[in-house]
Write a structure and sequence with these properties.
The protein contains eight helices and seven strands, in the order ααβαβαββαβαααββ. The chain is α/β, with parallel strands linked by helices. The protein has a domain at 28-153 and 197-233: Rossmann fold (3-Layer(aba) Sandwich). The protein has a seven-stranded mixed sheet, sandwiched between helices. Strand 4, helix 5 and strand 5 (146-152) form a beta-alpha-beta unit. Helix 1 (6-26) packs parallel to helix 4 (81-88) and helix 6 runs antiparallel to helix 7 (182-195). The chain starts with 5 loop residues before the first helix and ends in a 6-residue tail after the last strand. 46% of the residues are buried. It binds S-adenosylmethionine (SAM).
């Protein structure tokens, strides 16, 4: 099952970026679920928190972060120049910065850290080496800081694969064909979810990467088997 990574995936996002917001607007619960995921980053601090929105795309997840914590200093990073162009064109509070960077390059400017919290929405599944990316995230997250991973991930039952295939073939891929670059990206979406970890396998992967307190939060309603948010913490450092 071929999925896209690296330059091929970047090219697909650059081609599809003009239609991305229209498609997510048609996806039931997309923005509500991002808002719930961002709320799991924890409460605003007494001093402004530095939050990394990794794989920010056109800024849907960034909006969720800035709504959950309006005082935060947010670095929104993405590998796709096209997606970033659409994100930057929206109105943002002054403490939000969009930067072109690959998740694999975390730890180097412009995504050096340390960050008080990290959100990665629909990102890890798209990376060629998610273990490496999780390792990088852990290194830029301050000890005790929360990581929130939100994505299409399956619960692991046959019925969830059937639902996911029906959603993709019946709605997502046909709608994706309307705009430039869409079919390739949305076929990738279907395959990458089927080929990636189930929610509990992803939790185990996050734990292996050195995080603790890993929890799986299924979406509500009929999407419970296909959308999950996972929370974890970088362990505090002991003297
Ligand atoms: C499905 S979009 C999600 C965007 C946004 N987080 C949201 O919730 O709407 C995934 C984004 O991850 C970015 N991405 C994929 N692989 C990446 C990588 N290795 N490093 C940085 N960004 C990457 C893509 O360019 C794309 O904008």
């Amino acid at each position: 099952m071929t999925v896209l990574h690296g330059p091929a995936l970047n090219d697909a996002f650059n081609r599809a970026c003009g239609n991305y917001d229209r498609l997510t607007a048609l996806s039931p619960g997309y923005h509500r679920q991002l808002a719930s995921a961002a709320a799991l980053l924890g409460p605003a601090g007494a001093t402004p928190r530095r939050i990394l929105d990794l794989g920010c795309g056109t800024g849907a997840s960034t909006l969720a972060v800035t709504t959950a914590d309006p005082g935060a200093v947010v670095t929104a990073a993405d590998a796709s120049a096209g997606m970033l162009e659409h994100a930057r064109a929206k109105p943002w509070p002054p403490r939000v910065e969009f930067v072109e960077a690959r998740a694999e390059d975390l730890g180097r400017p412009p995504v050096q850290g340390p960050y008080d919290a990290v959100l990665a929405a629909y990102l890890l599944r798209n990376t060629a080496d998610p273990d490496h990316v999780l390792d990088r995230i852990r290194q830029v997250l301050r000890p005790g800081g929360p990581l929130v991973v939100h994505d299409y991930t399956l619960r692991g039952r046959t019925v969830d694969r059937v639902l996911w295939n029906a959603l993709c073939w019946g709605i997502v891929i046909p709608l994706g064909t309307v705009g430039a670059g869409g079919p390739r990206l949305y076929r990738h979406l279907r395959r990458s979810v089927l080929g990636f970890d189930t929610a509990h396998a992803l939790a185990a992967r996050i734990e292996r990467a050195g995080f603790t307190d890993v929890r799986v939060h299924p979406a509500t309603g009929w999407q419970a088997g296909v959308v999950h948010t996972l929370t974890a913490v970088r362990p505090p450092e002991h003297p």
